[in-house]
Amino acid sequence: MSAADREKAILGRLQEVTRYAYAHAPFYRKKWDEAGFHPAKLKSLEDFEDKVPVITKADLRESQARAPMFGEYLCVPESEIHHIHGTSGTTGRPTAFGISRGDWQAIANAHARIMWGMGIRPGDTVFIAAIFSLYMGSWGTLAGAERLRCKSFPFGAGAPGMTARAAMWLANFKPTAFYGTPSFALHLAEVARAEGYEPRDFGLKVMFFSGEPGASVPGVRDKIRDAYNARVIDCGSMAEMTPFMNVAGSEQSDQGMLCWQDVVYTEVCDPQTFRRVPYGQRGTPVYTHLERTSQPMIRLVSGDLTLWINEPNACGRTYPRLPNGIFGRIDDMITIRGENVYPSEIDAVLNQLADYGGEHRIIITRDGTMDELLVRIEAAPGVFERSSQAPAAMRSEAGQRLQKVLGLRAIIEVVPPGTFPRTDFKARRVVDDREVFRQMRERLAP
């Protein structure tokens, strides 16, 4: 579809969605009245950007505190809720997602459509190696696979010994597609080889990922592709926005993540003004549901950082594209000696080192009044045994590459294989010790 025709259709859906939310959700009605917006004023996509205020995760938590448990933006009777999911709440009040049966079917349809775009077909086996809990990614994949009439293999993740068992099942069943996190896929390849399996023999054709940046990072993507001899596709948005694959690659193109604008309307905006940035610039995605009625999200700020472009896509789809995927969360950005550093940039550099062992830790500390960046890198097996100079050479190469990319000097330590634990879910690699150092100084001050 031409962009002009699609935008006309999107505007019609936005008009419908805003009228519906204004009528059914006190949360939106109050927020929009205060901003001077009424759905009758929505005449163009520019009106939507200019007149509709953004919402944040904090707004959703506050609304659910006022109206437990689904908030003042629940637009259907609680009796119609079919699934309950949500955030874990480890850093604040958990957010509950009340999903109606109709919305669950819409999620399944959207996932099936996007998985078809990846090249997955009815009858293919989809191996889902992600935690089945409140986390929506695994459930959305399962719903989409079932809707596409695939053989669904909800293996899961997280239990002791499951990684070795995953290798055994993959070797025996040889599924077509695999879903999980990039960290787990790399860990699985290590464990599979230790168990006597060759990951390339699993016969996987498509591997798609979400939950963390990585599958769009060249070093990570290439390692997964080389390990399994499979196409690697990055996916992602927000749990609140499921389908999380509203942006994804396609069968004909690995040139980034497509914004499926007629499923979830995506604007990439300036993080301060929340006005759309021109194509070719960085900003934070702002998402709006076009197919959801139970808890519709309308201009929800992601807090992630990306860059978008609007160029021809090899697959023929006319959507805008995120050529480098999601870089990471803006609040994950680390400011060190005046330079803004994103952990994904460090990941990308390390994954292109020949002797990188697959894990690292980024430690920010303070020496007096000076911030220091320490990167501990796990070496691949055999590096320490090769020669006494091999770790030093790896340390030197990593330091030079990081300084070129980050624009600042990092302290590099190379540690033996197996130093850091692997994960079945999102990898946590950043340790910021500066606050600990500040508190210690305050305690010791006379």
Account of the protein in words:
The protein is an alpha/beta fold and 446 residues long. The strands form six sheets. Strands 4-3-5-6-7 form a five-stranded parallel β-sheet, sandwiched between helices. Strands 10, 11, 12, 13 and 15 form a five-stranded antiparallel β-sheet that branches. Helix 5 packs across helix 6 and helix 8 packs parallel to helix 9. The longest helix is centred in the N-terminal third of the chain and has 22 residues.
Distance between the termini: 70 Å
Helical content, roughly? 25-40%
Tally of helical segments: 13
Q: Which topology of the largest domain does CATH recognise?
A: Rossmann fold
Main sheet summary:
5 strands, parallel
Short description:
The protein has 446 residues and is of the alpha/beta class.
Topology:
Blueprint: H1 3-24, H2 26-35, H3 45-51, H4 57-66, E1 81-86, E2 96-100, H5 101-117, E3 125-128, H6 136-147, E4 151-153, H7 162-173, E5 177-180, H8 182-194, E6 206-209, H9 218-228, E7 231-234, E8 247-250, E9 253-259, E10 264-269, E11 282-289, E12 298-301, E13 304-307, E14 321-322, E15 326-329, E16 334-336, E17 339-341, H10 343-350, E18 356-367, E19 370-379, H11 383-386, H12 390-406, E20 411-415, E21 430-432, H13 434-444
Parallel strand pairs: 3-4, 3-5, 5-6, 6-7, 18-21, 19-20
Antiparallel strand pairs: 1-2, 8-9, 9-14, 10-11, 11-12, 11-13, 13-15, 16-17, 18-19
